[in-house]
Each structure stands twice: as structure tokens, then as C-alpha cells.
## 1
Amino acid sequence: MPVNHEADSLDQVQRVVEAMASHARFVIIRNQVHAETFALYDQSQVRVRLLKKLEAKEIAMPRMEEWLTNAGLCFASWVACPSRPGPHPLRCAKPALVTDGL
């Protein structure tokens, strides 16, 4: 379940925990795409419950470097590219339109 720095994220986590506490194991993903701090979540009772009582795990998902997200590097484009080079997902100037299975 992803969590970020906003209050509504904390509210969503609380609701899911209340509904699923006895039916699930939890992995909290600290999504750093918008902020690297999680003050509300870090000080919350729901975090204490998740970590201490429900034995949840936390994973930090760091923000990707801008050059990765804005450079047009996209695995889907690479797969659809008729002239894709080698085994690595590199930029393709003219990705083909994939219509198989649609």
C-alpha cells in the first residue's frame, strides 16, 4: 500500500488497515515522488499499529531521476519498436503502434 506526505494518504492507510487488519499482511511503500519526508505518517498511531502489532514491512521508493522519467525511455515503447537495438530498453525514435490483442 503506497503512502506519501499528504493527510489523505494517511486516511486511506487507516481505512485499509481497519478493514483488512485480520485478513492481510501489509507492505507500506513510502512513495518519495512528491516529498522525501513523511512527518504525518511517521508520527501516526496507524504506523505504530502496522509496525508493532501487524508486523508490517516498509519499503522506500525513491524519486526517480528526472532524466529517467523525461527522456522518453519507456519499456513499452522499446518493446513496440520494430528496430529496437539489442536486449536493453533504449529510446526508439519511431515506436510502432501495437494493436495485437486489442
## 2
Amino acid sequence: MLQGERELDDERQGLVRQQFELYASELPWENPYGDAPDNLTVERARAFLRENANEQSFYAAMLSQANSQFASVQLNRDYPVVLGTLYFFTIIGLVSRLLSDLSYIWFDPRISFERLS
């Protein structure tokens, strides 16, 4: 089983299975912990776990829903778009600063850039 870019060892896979088995067997029927529950949320979670007690179908449903909602990232395709957008807005920023500097002279004749040198 892969987690990101590394493989999970047998010990971690066993721990994951034990945790899922605990939650799949205990939570549909009662809360094994002593916290005061939000009854509506608890009932919804229990119903969900009863319907999705099979580990493979649960994860497959999560993955298919995530894949349908989010497009995969294509870095080779996205870099030129990002850099082109950055370049475009940089040029717009530079031109607007130049125009604002030149408009100072037009709006206020007391300002002269020749006096500064």
C-alpha cells in the first residue's frame, strides 16, 4: 500500500486494519468513548458506517468521489500558464506605474523630474 510516495510496512498496514475494524464494529452501535455525543451526528455516522462497513468499498467510494470533483494536476501543462499569467500582469503593472509617473507631470506642473538630476 502506498502512502504518498512511500510504501507502508506490514506493521502500519496491520494497525490501519485494526483501527478500521474497531471503528467498523464498535461505532455503528455505540460510542466506545465517554464524551457527550451530538445525537444527530452520531446517528448519521452510525448509519454511514453500517452501510459502508466493507473497507474496500468505503475507500473506493472516497477515491471515486475525490477523482470526480477535482481535476488531476498536470504540472507540465500548468507551468506555462502560470508563468504567462505572471508575465502578463507584471507588464500591466509596469505600464501602469509608468503612466502614473507621467500623469504627475500633466496634472501638477510644479513636479519636474528634470530637477531631481
